[in-house]
Each structure stands twice: as C-alpha cells, then as structure tokens.
Amino acid sequence: MTRLALIAHDEKKPDLIEFVHEHEQRLTGCELIGTGTTGKRINEETGLEVERMESGPLGGDMMIGAEVAKGELDGVIFLRDPLRAQPHEPDITALLRICDVHDTPLATNLASAACLIECV
Ligand SMILES: O=C(CO)COP(=O)(O)O
C-alpha cells in the first residue's frame, strides 16, 4: 500500500484540508502519516485517518525524515509557508534534503501535490 506523509505549516493547513477532501478517494487507498497538528486536523476534519508524529517544531519533521531514510515512505506532501520563518527551519531543511538523498517524491505546493498523488 502506498504510504504518504502529509504536513502543512499553519497558514497552509486549510489548503491541505481542502486538498485531502478533493482527493479523498485516492487517499483512502493510502496509509497516511503526518506531523502532530496537521494529523490531528485531518483526523478531525476529514474522513481519513493519519498516524500522528510529534508536532513539527517538536521534532515531527525529523520523525518523518527518519521514515524517508528507512525507505518506508512513497512520497511526502509538505505545504510549507514560504512567507514566514519557522523556529525549526533546520529540521525542515533536513527533511527536504533526506527526500533528495533517497529520491523520495516530495511536493511542496498544491499543484505538485496533485501530480504526486497521481503517480505514486
Ligand atoms: O511545523 C510543521 C512542519 O515543519 C508542521 O507541524 P504541525 O503539523 O504539528 O503543525
């Protein structure tokens, strides 16, 4: 089964929730993990179930990075907020890097997320 990570910064969470609603049929067939608050909101606001890691600033991005490093994720959808600095920027950079190291599909905006879920 396809295993995907779903992550969004606060300003992008509404976009991700809408994306999940739009693509619910496709995502129902996937195993989903996410950072803490993102996962909580998807669990509460959509019909899908996300396994929750820690919140991003508390290490959640690194936990997802570890899954990538273990080869246990088929793709990462990470709607970053490009207009605000994050306190855990080094963790975010590390997650993006480890996706490149392992050639794991990574989408950081809605258009690329739509492409990603069609091909993983
Ligand atoms: O900060 C995040 C990703 O860098 C997301 O974390 P939350 O889903 O806990 O808000």
UniProtKB/TrEMBL annotation:
Signal peptide: none annotated. It comes from the Archaea. Its EC number is 4.2.3.3. One of its GO terms (molecular function) is methylglyoxal synthase activity. Keywords: Lyase, Pyrimidine biosynthesis. The keyword Coiled coil does not apply. The keyword Secreted does not apply. It catalyses: dihydroxyacetone phosphate = methylglyoxal + phosphate. Belongs to the methylglyoxal synthase family. PANTHER family: METHYLGLYOXAL SYNTHASE (PTHR30492:SF0). This is Methylglyoxal synthase. It comes from Halalkalicoccus tibetensis. The gene is mgsA.
